[in-house]
Amino acid sequence: MTQVDFYFDFVSPYSYLALTQARTFEGHHGVRFEVRPVVYAKLLDATGLSGPAEIEVKRRYTFADVLRVAHRLGVPLAGPPAHPFRSLEALRALMLWREDDRALDLAVALSTAAWGKGRDLTDVAVIADVVAAAGFDVQDLARRVTSGPVKQALADATASAVRAGVFGVPTFVVGDEMFWGQDRMADLAEHVAGRLPATSKAAAPMLARPRDADRRILRPPWS
């Protein structure tokens, strides 16, 4: 059984699409996903990137693309009440049971609540309802998801992801190989099966070549 670290944030529609395929993928390819909830915004901050929802033309395209992929996969897509939305409480709730064998199923349930059913994951009552339906004890959940240790655990998990070179979600890491995006799950499958060569080290000679031209970064007028 091959362990694959699966980094995601519930704010990401592509994380949702990947999560809907996760259990089937495990069964077909002999892997075990290790859930790694992270705060996507912090990844962006650490790398100086912008999220698709922060650029209007990309936001419009992203939702069209997500609808197409959901249709192809045959999964529901209602979309959350607002986007982007604060996913911290839902991520922290998952952190409470991240070591549980059912953690992946809970992640799927929470993501589906937002993206598949249109529920509001910023509402702790909604989170509690989803967590309870998944078979977990939700007593005092509102306090638990705001406790210092849980907050720190999520912050530490996100910092660890940054150190590992993760810059977006969903991201899959197996050994030294990283696969970014729901649309790269097919490459992950090929790699696990031994049909795709390791490329992280093979790319080193190209990365060592000098940069010959760089785009001038224009400061936006509102900055």
Written overview of the protein:
With 223 residues, the protein is an alpha+beta fold. It has helices at 13-29, 40-47, 56-73, 88-96, 103-116, 124-133, 141-144, 148-163, 185-192, 204-207, and strands spanning 2-8, 31-37, 171-174, 177-180. Helix 1 (13-29) links the parallel strand 1 and strand 2. The protein starts with a strand and ends in a 16-residue tail after the last helix. 31% of the residues are buried. The mean pLDDT is 95.
Largest sheet: 4 strands, mixed
Class based on secondary structure composition and strand pairing: alpha+beta
Give the overall silhouette: globular
Q: Which stretches of 5+ consecutive residues score pLDDT under 50?
A: none
Give the class-level CATH name. Answer: Alpha Beta
Fraction of residues in helices?
Answer: 40-55%
How confident is the prediction overall: mean pLDDT?
95
CATH architect. name: 3-Layer(aba) Sandwich
Radius of gyration: 18 Å
**Total domains:** 1
Report the portion of residues in β strands.
Answer: 5-15%
Helix and strand pattern:
EHEHHHHHHHEEHH
Would you count the extended β strands for me? 4
Distance between termini?
49 Å
CATH topology: Glutaredoxin
CATH level-four homologous superfamily name: Glutaredoxin
